[in-house]
Write a structure and sequence with these properties.
heterodimer, A: about 400 residues, alpha/beta, TIM Barrel, 17 strands, B: about 525 residues, Urease, subunit C, domain 1, 3 domains, 6-stranded mixed β-sheet, 18 helices
Chain lengths: ~400, ~525
Amino acid sequence: MNRSLVGHSKVLVSLLAAALLPAVTVAQTSAGRVVHAAAYVGADGKIHTGGVVVVENGVITQVGGDVPSDTRVDAYPGGVVCPGLIDCAASLGAYGNLSERQNAIQPHVNARDAFDRFSRQLRAALAAGVTTFALAPDDQNLVGGRIAVCQTAGPDGKPRILTEAGPLKLSIAPESFKQDREPTSRAGAIGLLRETIEAARRDASEDNPLAAFAAGRLTGVFTTPSGADVLAALRLKADYGLRLVLVHTRDARLVAEQTAGQVTGVIVGPLDLAAGRREALAAGVFERHAVPVALAGGLPARPADSLRIAAAVAARAGLTPEAARRAITTVPADLLGMGDRIGKIQKGHQADLVVFSGDPLDLRSRVLAVYVAGQRVYVPDLKAPEGDQP
Amino acid sequence: MIAAALDSGRGLAAGATGGLPASALLVRESFLAPTRTGIPSRRVPRAPCPPVRIAVALMLVLSAATSPAAADDTDQVIVLKAGRVYTVSGAPIDGGIVIVRAGRIEAVGRDLQVPEQARVIELADAVITPGLIDACCAVDFEIPQAAFSRLYSADEQPSFWRTLAELQQRRRMDEDRAIDPESGGPPSFTTPEGLAAASPPNLTWAEHASEVTPHRLVSDSLNLFSNDFARLMKGGVTTVYVSPDSASVIGSRGTVVKTAGRLSERVVRRADAVKATMGSDPSRRGRGNVLPPGRGRSAPPSFHTRRPTTRMGVEWVFRKAFYDAQRARDGLELHGADMPPRQALPVLQQVLDGEIPLRIQARMQHDVFTALRLAAEFKLKFILEEATEAYRCLPQLQAADVPVVFGPIYMAPTGYRRYSGEADRPRLNTPKQLADAGIEFALTAQELRDEEGLLRQGMYAVRHGLSAEEALRAITATPAALLGLSGQLGVVAPGAAADLVVWNTEPFDATSRPLLVMIDGRVVYEE
């Protein structure tokens, strides 16, 4: 990333932005528009100059090149256009617990039922550039239920559910062992999962998410906190041909080699600035073994900016900057099965965009605007201190 | 001998392997290669079927390409020259030479032709023995003693969790420093309480959802990265049978693993014997619910409430489980209380048929008698574990031809054994008495390490009358035989796996220490 962008005078930016942008945050027009900044984050994670993104009917129709003459232009001199950030392990807007405590196997639970559209957390996340997040059942059950992919704002500015048929959430975290129901141990947890998968293979009914998971048609997002858990998950994968995304940070250096080529990707994090050495190193280790890495923001338990913080911390510990940018945009979209629709600034993709005042990895960069499906849904009051935003 | 019967029962007979060379026998159960069914076969696999072979080959390619450990490729011939070699399978050889090729012992003897381009390790006066084998080892997830502490409800004390939290904290920081010596990195949890709150609520090997869980596998719980394995290996132990804890009447199935080496080759057998326990260990966890008011902590209702609370209950649950397994096989309907889980029935039936070995832990004389009585009732062959009072049941063990995994040896019980009240009459010369009675036995250190570890168990046995030769066999060849791996492990003989330990002096000397440990032809430790 070129440093001159980062060093750009914030005063100038804010003056220009205040002068050029209308105060209204939602413009209800389906006509095309151009987001014109200095640079954009490409699908490869690199920052490319020529930040022209043309949007029509909510979809990106042109990236780079010249600014079309007859279209409305939102200009952000010095800005960097980035795909809307995606937190693939969040509980934003969750109303109540994200686990059902009766039984450890809950394939029919759907996280969309816990989604509270009126939660104030959503606006804070939007202001930090997070447009999409996976509302996931928590780690208390072996099979927690379906993940719902939600947006902090739709094109009308109101939070919405993008799809309620997201991946299946699984866990063999110690939290899933209870003293008042099966399983009470790892051996019991793996054994019970195995029996569940085998039973699901015999039941091929359409509406059974477990059957789809057992047949390798539905991705499972699998929380595996220790290296031993990862090996156990990989063994299940080898036995049953599952499609897995692992949630793992701790023992990356021990298991990265075995993980390579076996899983769709790994979700690392959340990481904050005080992250331990090996947590910080994890993402880079997976990248070196060619395992796609997404970073978790852990919203809303963490600060709204935690996705970018995680990316910066991972980059500081050896993740390449390109991979760090992809880890909070492209890769999480892919892992959630939405990679052909969101997560990239590319022709034909939904125009979910965040304009930063510089490199998104630079924690000094501020959000200048957020677009969802081509509509500008958030513009900060740049004169106010950031803490007072939305 | 039962070991021979187990051997053939395990599918290791020549018929099962066809005309394959002996080296094909010990194909490891790779933890990633697909098993045909979900519940893996208990047998040592025959020559791998094509998909397995491809998976194994792929994995080898992958690990060879990326692992830094791949540098010491096993194709290299290693020659060890030592002052003395204890082959265990035959007489000791002074000035012996051991030739290791492709992970196996190619030759052992006095005047052997040293192959060209071999790496020759001159060991002067050192002593070579086979790698030690613990046939009843307790390895815990994170902290070795934690699982056993739970047996006497130590986890109900906040101090237990504080200690555990501190140990885990230290371990984490050690590992961080191992990655980066400069890293003083901030701890992930700032207070032990914070870590305790995030700690696993259950650290035991055994599944407690039922009293009868032979369908569960310890190998699923196994943390191959546990520091405990390195500690065992540095004590000369190269192979362990990891046993489930004794908290269930019929517990999970143990697993056989190597203590070091390449990850994909460490698991020798995923699912081994079913473990049953006599005595008070399985009944103790339920007591909180049955003590009269004022005599102990009142526990919230849980499924532990229905666990047996007496020896009679333990015996009943054992009998009912096998009784139900027989009825189910005869197509009869099951009825009554304490029915074993449905998934347990096929496993119990295989135990009845002698296809899966059975181990029974019993410490006191009357518990051993109970085990013998139950075994006779269901015509079960079994291996007796721990057997503190074995010296009081010698004729009965002789008559029933029951092998024993004896140990640990101690003067006075400590830890959970003291609380069990079952270990108050140990005798130090029990191994000698077992040997004199002609009972096949192996020694085990269970959860003990270092100066109380497996080698020192042999030393104590020698101090109290056992011959050094018999003691060495009890920690090498005999445990291998009890695991059905006779001739493949626990001996220095052509065709056996190259698991060797080089000691600075006679191993049962108090001054002995390992100078070098080799597993599958790879030097995994060198002083």
